[in-house]
Every structure is written in C-alpha cells, then in structure tokens.
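tool_call predict_complex ligand=zinc ion
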Amino acid sequence: MRAVAVFPHAHEVKLIDVEEPQIARPTEVKLRMLDVGICGTDREISSFQYGTPPDGSDYLILGHESLGEVVEIGPAVQGISVGDLAVIMVRRPCPHAECHACRAGRSDFCVTGDFTERGIKGLHGFLAEYVVDDAQYLHVVPAALRKVGVLTEPLTIAEKALSQALHIERRMPWLAEITPQSPERSELTAAILGAGAIGLLGAMALRAMDIETYVYDRVPPPNSKSQLVETIGARYISPENPSTSFTDLIGHVHFIYEATGVSQLAFQAIMALSPNSILVLTGVPGLGAHKELDTDTLMRNMVLKNQVILGTVNAGSVDHVSAIRHIKTFMERWPEVFDTIISGRYPLDAYRDLLLGQSSGIKNVLSFEPK
Ligand SMILES: [Zn+2]
Ligand SMILES: [Zn+2]
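tool_result ok
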C-alpha cells in the first residue's frame, strides 16, 4: 500500500510502498483511510525538527488527524461495525505502573513522557491506505459527517481546553454547577488568540455554548477568517497598530484560549483577564526567542486577581466524544463554514506541497478518495 513517510536520518520525505497492516489481535480494527488533515506538527516533522520512527524502523509514516472507514473487525470488537466511519486517537499510554494518568486511561496527562503518538513519536501515523489499531482508540463518527469528520482531532485540543477551564470555573461556589448547557455559561466572555484551525474550531465550540467570544488575529479584516468568525456570531479583532493592547480592543474576559504558540502575545494577553479568570495555553513555541516580560506586573495581577494559567496538550477519550457531538452541532448551525475551514482537499500525490511547500489555508486535507 502507499504511505507518506519521513526518513529523519536521510532527511527525506517520500511516498513509499509498504506492506498492508493486518489484524493481529481479537480487539483490533482495520480501517481504509479516507481523509488525513495536515497541521504544523506534520510540517515540523517533515523539516526534521522532531518526530521519532518506531523502534527498528528508519522511517515514520506521518499523519495524526484521521478519518477512516472500518473494513474489518477482530472477533472481540464490540460497538464498531464494518462500514462505520471512525477517527483514531493519537496518543498511547506509557508502560510505567506508577503513571496514574496512563493507568487511568488519560495518557494526555502522562507524567513520565514515555507515551507514544501515532505519526509523531514511536508509532506510524495515518497517512497510509490502511491502518490497524485497537478498538479502544477508535471513535465512531456519524456517516453524515463524512466530509468534516477529519476535523475531530484538532477540535479535541479545544474541547480539552474548554473542559479544563470549566473545571477551574467550578472552584467558585456560584459556578459550582456550571456545564456547557447551564445558564451560568452565557455570563462568560472568552477570547481566542489566533484564527488558525484550532483557534476557529475553539471559537465554534464556545459559540455552540452561547458564550460571548472574540477572536484575535493579526491579519486585518475583512478576510475569510473574519467572515467565518462573524457567521458564528463571534467578533473578529485585529490591531491596527501593533502597540494596541488587548484590553483596549476587547476589554476584560473570563477566559483566554491561546492558539498561536507566540509566547509574548500569550503573556501580554493576561492583562485582558478579569478577576478569577483563566488563560489556557495550547500553542507550542519554538525555543530561543528571548523576549522581555514585566514579570512583577504579571505576578502582582495574577495574585491580586486569583488568576490561573493552564497549559494543555493532546486530549482524552471524553474530549473526542464531545468533539464529534460539537461537529454535528456546527453542521446544523453553520454548515457553510466548513468550506472555509477545510481550505483544500488534495490527492495523496500532493503531499510534498502540503508538507514542504509554503503553508497556506486553514486546514488542508489529503484525501485517499479525492472528489
Ligand atoms: Zn495536528
Ligand atoms: Zn504515562
């Protein structure tokens, strides 16, 4: 079968022909891949910044944002049938008995760092015609989401960030019962930093909860992202000159969701947090850019206003369930936005442009069945 792989030592990214994987254990499922989303992680692996092949292999098959169709199931698999659409989770637990996170099924909170990740660290990814995995890592996607189910994995990052933020809101007795549906939620305001795929999907999740939402991006409106933001009933904010502060632009908010990986922007944004509020960081900056920060003011503000800075990575099974439910809601409320978010759908042969060419569009997808 065909697969796209990175060879870190030889510094090559190429289409390879490998043996089709087969079901080896009764709990495994075989999928024919339909769509694989490409993101900054794939591009960084393709420029050899990180990415680890499985033990004994000199290459790593790329791809972690999946949508596949089940073609075969092991005899012990329940709740999944041939013909179902499914997304496959990325991270697998570490082997250590003392890692409570992995033993509790939450490898996204792994404390040892010895987890593996399909398409990123120690396990082959999903940019291959067929993939086999254990049923416990699959989430069935309704057939109606065939064209958009590939957005599940990037949305899970936002889902985890939002559910963590709601957990923290519950520390306040008058918000102890807050849920994505309870009336208290509509008193919250949120700001998203960065109108990339994860930022926009996060904004859609917030709007699906009827939370007042601002999306901050440096590209001035009008553009396709600002139009999308308006369609979902959020406000697009862009500074006319770079020295404009967030509080000038948006006032104060309860929740800032950072999806840029720009550390200075993230820490400046703290000034826009109201008392008792939360900054959630999801971007991963490259190392080395040393910027000055007024740490006294930052710390003073955080202490005097009971504020929280939270980092979050990857996502749990529960976040996949809410992502799939939310994508269904998005389809019902704003079906037109998916043509903006999925900015391009390409045949597998276009892998080189998407992985190594200039980055463009919001979410580009490699399809094994181009339309
Ligand atoms: Zn990704
Ligand atoms: Zn672990």
